[in-house]
Design brief:
This protein is α/β, with parallel strands linked by helices and 319 residues long. It has three domains: 54 residues, OB fold (Dihydrolipoamide Acetyltransferase, E2P); 166 residues, P-loop containing nucleotide triphosphate hydrolases (Rossmann fold); 63 residues, Probable gtpase engc, domain 3 (Ribonucleotide Reductase Protein R1, domain 1, Orthogonal Bundle). The protein has nine helices and 13 strands. The strands form two sheets. A five-stranded mixed beta barrel has the order 1-2-3-5-4. Strands 6-7 form a two-stranded antiparallel ribbon. A hairpin with a 2-residue loop joins strand 4 and strand 5. The longest helix is centred in the last third of the chain and has 16 residues. About 3% of the residues have low confidence.
């Protein structure tokens, strides 16, 4: 006997469509289809909306209430033993911004790339301070394994707006990659995220001030993630996120890791055992590739060490 068709989800009467463009604690700033913005809060303990979410909200005096978060195509987040930190939803790509000086952490870069791979989000790696020849050369060489994996790489020299002429070509290349997409800019503190936002969105400081004023000067917690439109047609979005020093991957199973690291994934199917951990098994395609110095598609020792450390870390959190 066939089942009766499931009735469509009931829409709460009187709700409006909106896009979450800023998040601060449990409260969010929602932009309507007409461009107006209103502070909204969740009803009860329903799932938390994040920047990039499409929502249905209900007006309530001068604020609003989130009644429903529409289904997401993806959610970029990190998770440690204490809590989960969601950055943004419904992304087209993640721009991981690092600086040539001080030296960036390959561990942090790898963790962010794994989180993007897990959600099926395209990742772009940008290296700032290309004007510092010697440190930039060292950092660019350090990124060779990531170029070999096929990640898009961008050199940048982000300068104050008054001195932008020297890096016009680089900026134009970046804007072309951002066009028509929602892009989360991610990276450690000091990499140049704020400078990049101010370069691409000259009115960013004004918009941030307007949000603070709308929040009644500290009525709610400080804005942590903000979506800025590049251009008036609201088709290209840059999402600025807070800097991070740690990037937990507790939401990733240890046995998933190799499949989320393209250089390991390319050789994992050559293992003798289907449930190979790539740590000690005989006939492991990954281990043999790490030991091979002749193969241009080989796995670097530093990448394999990162894999081993992450596997051990994620295994400990589960036992």
């Amino acid at each position: 006997m066939s089942k009766a068709p499931r009735p469509p989800a009931r829409q709460v009467e009187g709700t409006h469509a909106g896009l979450v463009v800023a998040g601060f604690g449990r409260h969010v700033l929602v932009e309507t289809d007409s461009g107006a913005r209103v502070i909204c809060h969740p009803r009860g303990k329903k799932s938390q909306a994040v920047v990039g979410d499409r929502v249905r909200w209900l007006p309530s005096q001068d604020e609003g209430t989130i009644e429903k978060v529409e289904p997401r195509s993806n959610l970029f987040y990190r998770q440690d033993e204490m809590r989960t930190k969601s950055f943004a939803a419904n992304l087209d790509q993640v721009l991981i911004l690092m600086a040539a000086e001080p030296e960036f952490s390959e561990n942090q870069l790898t963790r962010a790339l794994i989180a993007a791979e897990a959600e099926g989000i395209t990742a772009i790696i940008a290296l700032n301070k290309s004007d510092l020849a010697e440190p930039f050369g060292r950092a660019w060489a350090k990124l060779a394994p990531y170029r070999a994996m096929g990640y898009r790489m961008l050199p940048l020299a982000i300068k104050p707006k008054s001195d932008v002429g020297a890096n016009d070509a680089q900026t134009a290349g970046l804007i072309a990659l951002l066009q028509g997409k929602k892009t989360l800019v991610l990276g450690p503190s000091g990499a140049g995220k704020s400078s990049l936002t101010n370069l691409l969105v000259p009115q960013a400081k004004v918009l941030t001030a307007e949000i603070s004023q709308a929040l009644n000067s500290g009525k709610h917690t400080t804005t942590s993630t903000t979506l800025y439109w590049i251009g008036d047609d609201r088709s290209t979005a840059l999402i600025d996120s807070p800097g991070f020093q740690e990037f937990g991957l507790n939401h990733i199973e240890p046995m998933q890791l190799a499949g989320l690291m393209p250089d390991l994934k390319a050789h994992a199917q050559n293992c003798r055992f289907y449930n190979c951990t790539h740590l000690h098994e005989p006939g492991c395609g990954v281990i043999s590739e790490v030991k091979s110095t002749a193969s241009p598609s080989g796995i670097s020792a530093s990448r394999y060490r990162l894999y081993s450390e992450l596997f051990a870390e994620l295994s400990q959190t589960r036992y």
